[in-house]
Write a structure and sequence with these properties.
Layout: H1 2-15, H2 35-60, H3 76-82, H4 95-123, E1 140-147, E2 152-159
Antiparallel strand pairs: 1-2
Amino acid sequence: MKSPALALAAALALAAPSAGAEEQTTPPRYPPSSVRPKLIVGGVAVTALAYGAGFLAATSWPEVPGSSELKIPIAGPWMALAKNGCAPDEPDCGAKLYVRGALTVVGGLAQLAGLALVGEGIFMTTEARPAQPPSTSALTVLAAPVITATGMGVGVVGTF
């Protein structure tokens, strides 16, 4: 008899709306637009480093199955993983096969992460620069061309 009453009390307590004060909603803050090129350059650098490491491995050990696929950016590590195996001159490569597969996956994920950073840099929402207030200098003088039917010259305009 106690368990249905206890279950009903728990259900009512969980279903009741909270009586807290209203939460203040602040507009979301976005990074400044100066972050965009830095993020793109960082993403290109991460992708280039990961691709360079894979390319170096492919040229250092060409006899390993799937090494030629590492020369292809972004998709190469995943294609090499499908062909991962022991070299013909080493039929029982043991743990090397698993280490090489894990490093191939890490290289592929690093290339994808760099590509994601580039995409984030291109498509992210940034804050607009605040509008510059008009200058309140007391004196402004500018030269302006003056052209008439009979001549031309320079005039001076300004605010005082």
